[in-house]
Amino acid sequence: MKKSAIAAAMILAVISSTGAFAEAATGTIASIDKKGDSITLSDGKTFVLPEGIEAETLKVGEKVVVTYSTKAGKLAASSIKPAK
């Protein structure tokens, strides 16, 4: 029983430290890579776009809020909305 409790605690610690929590960034779109399905904001952060968000719907110069998480060392956008 004691070993399984220790194992469960270790698994929980690893899961909570992986950075799977969504973050948000606000900025102006500096460039759009339609072939690579990504955008770069004026601060230099590049976000990979998910299925369902088409690069063609975005415009350079548009101010946006990007909700994202880090996956395999890349910033993966989950939503992009116009900034107010």
UniProtKB/TrEMBL annotation:
<dbReference type="Pfam" id="PF07076">
    <property type="entry name" value="DUF1344"/>
</dbReference>
<protein>
    <submittedName>
        <fullName>DUF1344 domain-containing protein</fullName>
    </submittedName>
</protein>
<dbReference type="InterPro" id="IPR009780">
    <property type="entry name" value="DUF1344"/>
</dbReference>
